[in-house]
Amino acid sequence: MFPRGRKILLGVAGGISAYKSCDLLRRLQDEGFIVDVVPTAASLNFVGKATWEALSGRKVITDFWSDVESVPHISMAKENDLIVIAPTTADLLGKLASGRADDLLTNIVLASTAPKILVPAMHPEMWLNSATVENVKILQQRGFFVIQPGEGRMTGSDIGVGRYPDSVNIITEINKVILQSADLVGKRILITAGGTREPIDPIRFIGNRSSGKQGFALAAAAASRGAQVHLVTANTDLPLIEGITTTHVETAAQMSAVLEIEFPHSDALIMSAAVADAKVSNYSDIKIKKESLDRVELQKNPDILKSLASGKKPGQVIIGFAAETSADFESLEKSGHAKLASKSLDIIYVNNVSDGAIFGSNHTQGLIIDSQLNVIKVPEISKDTLSDILLDQLASKLG
After folding, report:
1. Which one, 43, 129, 207, 275, has the greatest CB density within 10 A?
2. 7-181: what fold?
3. Are 395 and 389 in contact (CB under 8 A)?
4. Which residues are part of the catalytic machinery?
């Protein structure tokens, strides 16, 4: 079973078999997929918007001119890992083959780089028409996956090839296609994000500038590649990622407690959170008056990452992060090698946060160093891109 987190866009064209896509939607949800439904205007004559919203549990946009401020044809093209159009009518096959984009669904298809699966369903004469045959051939040459229709009774008394396939057959084909880009299916990935806070009193705390953006980017990317993701996040205000388990913590001790429980059951840990090195030893449970706030006594926090790494099982992989203020890559590499060895990590990403860089930004740069001492220099790239690079390394380590 696929974990929640992988998203499918289900397009529904205007054929009588559109009602069968209601069952397909349910079966996809049973498989763990999050499904966005985009019906064409013609299909709404067979199955209405309210039905799709009730079954999917998600808002359904039915035309190109709704929610224009979110640019849905672009946002939905980017958000979904796979597009399935079931049924695909002869008319829609012709539109797609000619590259037309005159409604929301065809615009999404044209804007998406995700794999696309078409489920043709129509009368035998239409399916066997030379125009349809040629359109299917064109789409297959462009990389579309076309599921052969079934054979049986059609609308009325017609019998032949062109029938909407059974949902189980469609899902079998979907799983075959999506496995090609799901290299972390079946893996349980534990990811930390944000920065811990150590309280001084009920009002004040010691903290850091971590926004959690890198950890959240890693969690989203891992889920999209099929992993079962548990995100442990400290003091972030980022929106929850649908389909993954998220635990909120505040202090290093709270984060450690969650990780100690979860890590033994995980295939990998990606420790991108900025954990406070020290906590206040003279915490006051009442507010300290300003005139009395002349000293804060600190004691070291346990090294969570080092502790977990010392007890890791064969096959488990740990990726650590290190924020440094070294201005050159040579110093970063030296620091990275030292921390990789001292914490017994498989991979470390070390970056330069001088002058407020990286924290809170959508971009990053640094070095990736693995246990074989291979070094990858990372120029300034988005944190989303770094996520995929690190997950490529992780997938390789996990075999």
Report:
1. 43
2. Rossmann fold (3.40.50)
3. no
4. 208
